[in-house]
């Protein structure tokens, strides 16, 4: 009798849970947007959140997913892995998000275990860390290529530019050291003199000690892989120290704010920045760029196309999935990036899937075929500082590195 | 040889900045009797106040810096009165832990008020002064001059003024000082104003030489602690020697070993000195 009562209660409870669990699914689904909104990378976090919202608006304008309209829940990582884990748990447990979009490299690596344990896919538009080359794939994806590609693009540009000597100044982080090593190998292989390879710690008031040796060798160019705070200080101090050569900077310094914080003479016509970027000649990118202009009045910021594509990929995978859960989304995610009818909008994907056709999403950031580590092949742009803005200089499609 | 001398010169500048950043911290430790971890955040308060006046309101750097130092001094005084005075009876450990909370509160407030990204002051690009094959920028020279002036002024104040003598008496023996008629409240207020004002001065220099982000001030706390511990956690004058040792050791180390180990060198020096003199450079066994 007691056993029967217990079983009855258990069945009733299971039924109640089964009824309540997909409650969010009936009303729609939520994507978590977990980005650094404060701290040094805050500018990027806002760009990502806005671009995901733009994508979600397009998805909902096309009638939403089969799980209902999509909404987003935004949280700030503050650039901290601990805070990212805390917020991700909250998003999954309290808000029932089916995917988490937007963490940066350090946070993505920290979230891998949680993503697999909670069966909730995580996707980043800018986490290039090579650690994800090893542990990415199942539940862990990105719409940007690996840092190794950044390094290859930087190396290619440095060798093509015809410099005789180059110094490397690299912030002490895995995400900057890995690509710098790749670029360094390319420079050495090309027979260019490597005058210094200095790894420095960020957060210092001054980097004069790190610059002494670099400036004493007076290289033709300095490859600076640093954050905004350290990078701007290094640029100022090198200029004050009499450096008159050129610069190749990495993605963190690709923001317009750099021009507001530096004397324009330091950058204009002698600084370049290398960044993973969509092929602006692609019709998908042009459409996205026009959409961004129409909605915000501004051109897309760094990684905006990659961020928009995260929302699209998640929604298309959900549309193709058997259920409105992170697990079902994960099962379809790589599949919707290869081997089917090519689509470039959610509306077209939705229509094709409804007709029983496999789809291959080609996004605003380019063809997004995800490999086994959940990473697409990358295209890169080198931009030149011209009249206080970054202007396109040389584009390297993914095929340039084959 | 010139290259090595350049590292030494840069190290002296680094040391002078550390002196400016640490002297107020050490002063609080000596008089108030606890490690005020929030001291580093006061550098940020001053740096961003200077930035707001200079960049947003378009003030000249000098009045901006002056107002920022005074403002920071009063922010420090207010925190001392509102937060630390009521918990003084619980002892230095509780005050230290509270100061960590105060640091987070100040940091969070700055995050909310300042927002994301980086900031720099509206001042001319530094220019280099060259001599004997060496190079120093005008802003680096300013750091050295201010460190010398600040230390000399503080020494004069503590040795010659009535309030300074009262502060020294209170730091040596608060009960005895109170029984001899020293106004403990007034002396404590003067201590907070001076130590926070010193943080304000260091914060202005942080704004002048560095690129500001809301977390850069807190990044300085480990080196401040290293200098203070090396100095003996009680001595003000030893802070000068300690700051120079840590600054020169860190920067000269780059001559031989990778720059990524710079922070490690600061603490390696501290550990080495403490192995020989556990009380620090100038501390005594009885030092608080």
TrEMBL record, chain A:
Residues 1-25 form the signal peptide. Keywords: Amino-acid transport, Signal, Transport. The keyword Plastid does not apply. Gene3D superfamilies: 3.40.50.2300. InterPro entries: BCAA_transport (IPR051010), Leu-bd (IPR028081), Peripla_BP_I (IPR028082). The keyword Signal applies. It comes from the Bacteria. Residues 29-337 form the Leucine-binding protein domain. Pfam families: Peripla_BP_6. Belongs to the leucine-binding protein family. PANTHER family: LEUCINE-SPECIFIC-BINDING PROTEIN, PERIPLASMIC BINDING PROTEIN OF ABC TRANSPORTER FOR NATURAL AMINO ACIDS. This is Leucine-binding protein domain-containing protein. It comes from Arenibacterium halophilum.
UniProtKB/TrEMBL annotation, chain B:
InterPro entries: ABC_transp_permease (IPR001851), BCAA_transport_permease (IPR052157). The keyword Metal-binding does not apply. Keywords: Amino-acid transport, Cell inner membrane, Cell membrane, Membrane, Transmembrane, Transmembrane helix, Transport. The chain crosses the membrane at residues 7-27, 33-53, 65-84, 96-118, 139-158, 190-212, 224-249, 255-276. It is a multi-pass membrane protein. It is found in: Cell membrane. The keyword Transmembrane helix applies. Belongs to the binding-protein-dependent transport system permease family. LivHM subfamily. This is Branched-chain amino acid ABC transporter permease.
